[in-house]
Design a protein that fits this description.
Shape: elongated
Largest sheet: 2 strands, antiparallel
Strand content: 5-15%
Number of helices: 11
């Protein structure tokens, strides 16, 4: 393999792949020793330091980090800023495109999920068994674009919550769901926006989807009266009532949930 170079030009494709990784990697892992960064950089033909620097440049443009007084390197170029803005404004097109570019770079087979978060050894390529296919007359069979968008959304949301359920702290990937606040069928423009996602256990995802729980303007959990009336009461107390009034796990980076989306959920879905 040719020796990586720090002078490899930053093409649009490389920036898109870097933006994809930025959304999937925790802020504390945007460094040149991260095995994911080492592996992807080598495939790009550049040094790990070059890719890590680009990721921290993107971090300086993240409004969620800025609001918390956290920032990356203050060296984002005009091209970085333009690509960041374009990516955020066209997630439905560019997130799947960036996922496809990573698939090609890593020689991932069709139908695979590129997992950048769960293994300390680097990228894991596996069947996308965690993804829930959307229902609907035109989407009974998910297209390549839909699958890639879902892969991006799931990993970006789970990363924002540190790989833990935002309610309980559960950290078993097989039991976690990237839950949509605005439902898939009703809001196609928000389908893969990480700010439309919550990382929840399968139990709490089901309760949220059915309007049995929601979150207030301060991200504290609310419980429907329907749950309070359910039996057995000790089960409801253990899995739901114990978390009422407690704040949602604080998301990192661009995945902080939209307050406007949650307000919609409270008014239109929550059973009260």
């Amino acid at each position: 393999m040719p020796k990586p170079k720090s002078s490899v030009p930053w093409t649009r494709q490389h920036r898109l792949m870097a933006l994809n990784l930025y959304h999937k990697l925790p802020f504390g892992r945007l460094h040149h020793r991260n095995p994911v960064i080492v592996e992807v950089a080598a495939k790009m033909g550049r040094t790990p330091s070059s890719l890590a620097m680009k990721l921290t440049n993107f971090a300086s443009l993240d409004p969620v980090l800025a609001a918390r007084g956290i920032g990356g390197l203050d060296g984002a170029s005009k091209g970085d800023r333009e690509q960041w803005q374009e990516f955020r404004e066209n997630l439905d097109e560019l997130a799947p495109e960036s996922e496809g570019l990573l698939e090609q770079l890593l020689n991932a087979p069709e139908g695979a999920e590129i997992d950048c978060t769960s293994s300390p050894r680097g990228v894991v390529i596996r069947p996308d068994r965690f993804l829930v296919r959307p229902n609907g007359p035109t989407e009974g069979t998910a297209s390549v674009k839909v699958r890639r968008g879902q892969c991006f959304f799931r990993q970006a949301v789970l990363t924002a919550y540190g790989g833990r359920c935002g309610v309980t702290g559960l950290a078993i990937p097989e039991l976690l769901v990237a839950s949509h606040i605005h439902p898939w069928a009703l809001f196609p423009e928000d389908r893969i926006d990480p700010q439309n996602g919550l990382c929840l256990s399968r139990l709490h995802d089901g309760a949220f989807d059915q309007g049995l729980i929601t979150f207030d303007a301060d991200l504290r959990m609310l419980m429907s009266g329907r749950l309070k009336e359910s039996e057995p009461k000790e089960t409801v107390e253990r899995f739901f009532e114990a978390y009422v009034g407690l704040p949602l796990r604080s998301p990192e980076k661009i995945g902080e949930p939209s307050r406007a989306f949650l307000e919609w959920h409270r008014s239109e879905v929550f059973a009260g």
